[in-house]
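Exercise 7.
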Amino acid sequence: MATIYAHTNDGYIARFNQSSWSNARANTAGTNISSTITSNSTAVSAYRSSARGGAYAFNIYRSFFFFDTSGISSNVSEATLKIYGRTFTSGDLIAVKSNSDIETLGTADFGSIVGWNTTTDGSGGGDNESNVTKYSAEISTWGSGYQDIALNAQALADIRDDDTVYICLMNSDYDLRDIAPTGYSDNRCGLYYTNYTGTSRDPYIDYTLAPTVSDNAVLFGTNF
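Solution. The predicted structure, written as tokens, is:
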């Protein structure tokens, strides 16, 4: 098994304190961003919080990572994205394919998700499940310490074929499916980024190459 650590320009982009779910989600530009932060308690989130005058504020956080896979050209049999979790731990998330825009992370990259459509009505009308390229199944259990996200066949192929693999972690219940949240208790996941001191909590991918089959294998029991 081999390991690839995320680039140090990983981080989050958020649309924070928006007056409606549509304002939070139906945009390709964020309002807040950091590619130097060490950790964030709401790194992957989609939630509604109380605002002044009895109103509500809607907030979406997406986290972005990229990995140098230029040294891999053989088939990959399995790979796991390892993310060090922290408070909060109550949200669901999914890994989807991002793009090269996130190499210099900025507010304009909020929608840097392959296949993403900003259509939003808060009732599922803008569900992007069939538009994005999923890199994992939905992760419904989050916690403190390293969390394992098993990468799927599409991710394995991209690790083999692409020089760089770009990943967005996003909330699956609300953000991906365009369901306006009504609270915040089950909508937030915290995690650490590469800029945390040392490597003990850095994001990384563990992968295993598939065994190679020799072309000159000896065939036994064959009549020619």
